[in-house]
Specification:
Blueprint lengths: L4 E11 L5 H13 L6 E10 L19 H13 L4 E5 L12 H9 L5 E5 L2 H11 L3 E5 L12 H13 L4 E4 L4 H5 L7 E4 L11 H14 L16 H4 L8 H11 L3 E3 L7 H12 L5 H14 L2
Parallel strand pairs: 1-2, 1-8, 2-3, 3-4, 4-5, 5-6, 6-7, 7-8
Helix pairs in contact: 1-11, 10-11
């Protein structure tokens, strides 16, 4: 492995632009001061997340106050300044046509429709609505929350479903795969994003139920942390590193770059800010600069300077 970077340019899709702005503000200020701390060829593909709204989805979604129009515009300007796409996690899997009319969600979509931003979709109803309303104003990503592989336990059929998604009119497919051999057969690897640090078990039998419950809680303003059939590993970076499907920075360099993959997603929009710092430092920061960056970030987060 190249200790100070990656041998080819790759894009990371990173968590928490709305949920963890407390991390992103000082982190980007640090990079403005000295971007040489970044690993060679590590690029920002997007930063994803969502304000609390009924289109939002995922697992264990943090409940927080809605952003005001001004706050939304501030996030848009921050991301445009740094030339990074904002990627919305509009992955609620229980949406109906009636939900597409939500005033606040439409306000968010209106404000960020600049042609440079992205939406992760689960619901065909929402995706059709957004495509009809905004045309090419957004790029669309097919979400891991579809749990394509869980719909059919036969491996070959699951792979066929993935390939069908890849050939659809979408920007990329986010996916977890159980074996490296599955990946070799994919031709358009540039449209794949590999999830590196998932805290779930591979093929978790509760995953679809978890997504559904979180989606229902978004619609009903329920208990955002009510799902109780997991082992407590959600948002634990330490647990993620124990999973068989964990992709380390070394794996990216030694295994996945040679295969032809160039897009990698990192989990963590519901993580503690200090844990997100650890994740970012592991994947993005040169080994020789890690201690310096951690010290800077820990100090900023501790003092809120």
């Amino acid at each position: 492995i190249l200790m100070e970077g990656y041998s080819k340019e790759i894009a990371f899709h990173l968590p928490g632009i709305f949920e963890l702005g407390i991390v992103w503000q000082p982190f980007m200020e640090l990079l403005e001061q000295d971007d040489s701390v970044l690993k060679t060829n590590a690029k920002f593909g997007s930063i994803y997340g969502s304000p609390t709204c009924i289109w939002n989805g995922g697992r264990n979604t943090v409940g927080m106050a809605q952003f005001t129009r001004k706050q939304l515009e501030n996030v848009r300007e921050f991301m445009e300044y740094h030339r990074i796409p904002t990627r919305f996690t509009f992955t609620n899997c229980l949406l109906t046509e009636e939900h597409t009319k939500d005033t606040y969600c439409n306000l968010i979509a209106d404000i960020f429709c600049t042609g440079n931003n992205e939406i992760i979709c689960n619901s065909p109803v929402l995706e059709t609505y957004l495509r009809n309303k905004y045309g090419n104003g957004y790029r669309y990503i097919s979400s891991t929350t579809k749990t394509i592989a869980d719909k059919d336990k036969q491996k070959a059929t699951a792979m066929e479903n993935y390939l069908e998604e890849l050939n659809a009119e979408k920007t990329r497919l986010q996916a977890e795969f159980d074996a490296q051999g599955d990946l070799e057969s994919i031709e358009n690897k540039d449209k794949c994003e590999l999830l590196c640090n998932s805290t779930c078990y591979a093929n978790c039998p509760n995953r679809t139920k978890h997504y559904e419950e979180t989606s229902r809680n978004q619609l009903e303003q329920g208990d955002y942390n009510s799902f109780s059939t997991c082992d407590g590993g959600i948002c634990s970076y330490a647990n993620a590193k124990t999973r068989d499907h964990y992709i380390s920075p070394e794996d990216i360099e030694k295994v996945y770059i040679p295969m032809g993959f160039s897009n990698f997603k990192l989990e963590g929009r519901n993580a503690h800010p200090l844990i997100l710092v650890d994740i970012l430092v592991d994947y993005l920061i040169k080994d020789s600069c890690k201690d310096k960056v951690k010290e800077y970030m820990y100090k900023r987060l501790w003092t809120h300077e």
